[in-house]
Structure formats: C-alpha cells, structure tokens
C-alpha cells in the first residue's frame, strides 16, 4: 500500500504556478528521490503533504488519509524542511529534548538519535554556531525522533561534505530496508541516482518522469 499519494495537486502563488497537476506515489521500503530544478515545486509539494500549506486543487494522502500535522501523532511522519530554521540559542541536545518532550519522548531517545546522526561530540554546543552540514544532521535527528514510518526530507544533502553524503546515503538505505517510506528531494540528479531506488523527476510543477533507478540505468 502506498505510504504517500500525491494526486493532481495544483497551486498558485499570485501569478506564479507552483504546482500544475503534480501526481506520484511513494511506497514503503524504498528511497524515493524527488528531483528537479529549483522552482519545480518540490518544497511546495512536501509542505502540502505535511499539511503545512494548502493546494488549490488535488489532494495528498499519507497512509490513505489527508495528513493533519497538528492533530496526527507527531511520530507518524518525520520531516526535514529547512535546516536553517533551527533554534540557534539552544544547544543541539536541548533543542532535541524540547522536541522530544512535545512528543512524549525522553532523553534516552534524544541521545540515541544524536549518536545515529553523528553529533555526539557537539551535542552540548549551541546550534547557532553549527555549519549547514551539522544543522542538516540535527534536522535529520529531529525527523527521526519519533521513529516514524514515513520520512520527508527536503534537500538534506545541502551543506554536507562528501563524507556526510556517503553517511546519509547509508542512513536512508537502512531506514528504507526497515520498511520505512523515504521521500527525499534534491536539485541534483547525480546525487539522487546514487541514493534512491525510485526517482520522481519534477519540472514546472508536474512530474516529467517516474521511474525506478534500475530501469533508468538499464535504459542509459
Ligand atoms: P522547489 O522546491 O522545487 O525549488 P518550490 O516548491 O520551492 O520549488 O517553488 C515552486 C514555485 O513556487 C517557484 O516558482 C517558487 O518561487 C514559488 N513559491 C514557492 N513558495 C512560494 C511562496 N511562499 N510565495 C510565493 N511563491 C512561492
Ligand atoms: P517556513 O517553512 O516558511 O519558515 P513554517 O514552517 O515556520 O514556515 O510555518 C509555515 C506555516 O505552517 C505557519 O502558518 C505555521 O503556523 C504552520 N506550521 C508550522 N509548523 C506546523 C505544524 N507542525 N503543524 C501545523 N502547522 C504548522
């Protein structure tokens, strides 16, 4: 069964058409790469899936139902939308403790995700001094806190060094191997070919190609 269904989304911002019939499905147990140039509508689609933004037409379903961020148990979907938006004055660990508290989770879970994303050495430093790559790791830690079956990550590779790129590839693969659905966006096709099992290629607010990576490589 599909973990995420995006069905004919349309959205305008004033005269700008952000989504123009965006439709695709995300299955559990695989990494789905959402690729396309800047402005293709990837972030808007993710925000609509998460119930943070409304489409003019169409629908987005998570587990067969519209996702209501405020009412759904927070552990249902883990999301990284904008790593730069983390609270700068808190330490990384305190930031996660605060998020964990709102999900009814404790310090043990926080320390587990800190280790999982490799921030153990800097967890007690202020996040405001973090590089973008470290912020990405912190944002991913936040997304993983509730052990969610569905993960939505917007450009998580931005700011990561080559070692970080290898790390996130392994992380996403292991999360998918555990049966989770992972939707991950990037404006770089090359990055996603190495990371994803399935590719949804977007352009101008719609899907221009929807293919398994294996088929893509076989066709090349
Ligand atoms: P992507 O994530 O693929 O870069 P976006 O979903 O961010 O694409 O943007 C799609 C289009 O919608 C772009 O033309 C962008 O400028 C526009 N857009 C996105 N968010 C807003 C907003 N809050 N206000 C006005 N225009 C927006
Ligand atoms: P941006 O990503 O553009 O910085 P935000 O994500 O901070 O914007 O918030 C955009 C809108 O979504 C705001 O109206 C905010 O109240 C709402 N919002 C933010 N987080 C949630 C959430 N977890 N559940 C529901 N609505 C939210």
Automatic annotation (TrEMBL):
Limits of the ABC transporter domain: 4-220
Gene Ontology molecular functions: ATP binding; ATP hydrolysis activity
Keywords: ATP-binding, Nucleotide-binding, Transport
Superkingdom assignment: Bacteria
UniProt similarity note: Belongs to the ABC transporter superfamily.
Name of the protein in its database record: ABC-2 type transport system ATP-binding protein
